[in-house]
Amino acid sequence: MSNILDSKLVSFSYFCLLLIILLADCNMNVTYINLSGHVELEKYRYVYFSIMVIAYILILSSNFTVVCLVVIHKSLHEPMYIFIAALLINSILFSSSIYPKLLIDFLSEKQIVSYEACLIQAFTFYTLSCSEYLLLAAMAFDRFVSISRPLQYHMIMRKRTVSVFLVLAWFVPVCHIVVPFIGNANSKLCSFTLRGIFCNNSVHHLFCVASRALLTYGLVALFNIAVFPMVFILFTYTVILIVAYRSCGDVRKKAAQTCLPHLLVLINYSSLFAYDIIIVRLESDISKAVRFVMTMCIIMCSPLFNPVIYGLKMKEIYKHLRRLFSQTRGK
């Protein structure tokens, strides 16, 4: 299992390096973008910095703890727990693409970023965001097979199947999202001020003329790697609930214990992702303070929420967590 996750990280690093090289070749002159989304930074910079440092430490420690438990304990070497570990690694990478730069900006006099680095950050942000949807879709399929086809479960959810799902969850978003970002690398900019604290969809408002072809492609990509997986997840869990309702009490209990955490994570993440896609893209006239708070929720809630939900609601993981903390307390 660890080999699968390691290969996933190496492959993603390779694609990021390739993207950096491509963007660097596109434009040797450095263009800087001003990040104007901060609220009263001069007054509260140390408060923001302290909150984000604590949040980042909690994200790294909590996600790494659950991932290590899954890797160490053979009883957790099941498809469902492997997908959970992959999802938490995704959260770590997601946070690490945003937090270091954000912490530097909180302590800096000027909050600027090069245009190339901005595109890379936005690319990483949306790649990892869509990977989360695909991983949740893989979990939904795993639960569907487990509850609806229990006798064929081990035949269907083999190691090779799990490996294919992990690879697809990683590379499909990369292949979809890399096209518009490379296409926009040489776009002419008419604005150098981004209404945000990091690079996201707002980068499209910097262009003098937005490419209709790339915008259309972006909508198709959004449907393929976000909307379609979400519809599949909802359909799958609807079928699971119907099957559980018609079955005995043990099946209902199993469905509730294993499906509820996935649904909570999906609802939480979809709400925040919808804000970023719809509100930011439409440049809604919401106040700067509300925009700042919502952006902070996007980058804090899901990475902190996921390990707590899976650590407390998944019975096997919770059992190992209790044992770990009991041993630590005893020492």
Low-confidence runs of at least 5 consecutive residues: 21-28
- Describe the largest sheet: 3 strands, mixed
**What kind of oligomer do you see?**
single chain
Class by alpha and beta content: mainly alpha
Helix proportion range: over 70%
Amino- and carboxy-terminal Cα gap: 30 Å
GO molecular function, one term: G protein-coupled receptor activity
Family: Belongs to the G-protein coupled receptor 1 family.
Organism: Xiphophorus maculatus
Main location: membrane
Please give a handful of descriptors for the protein shown.
331 residues; mainly alpha; Rhopdopsin 7-helix transmembrane proteins; 11 helices; 3 strands; 3% strand; globular; receptor; GPCR_Rhodpsn_7TM; olfactory receptor activity
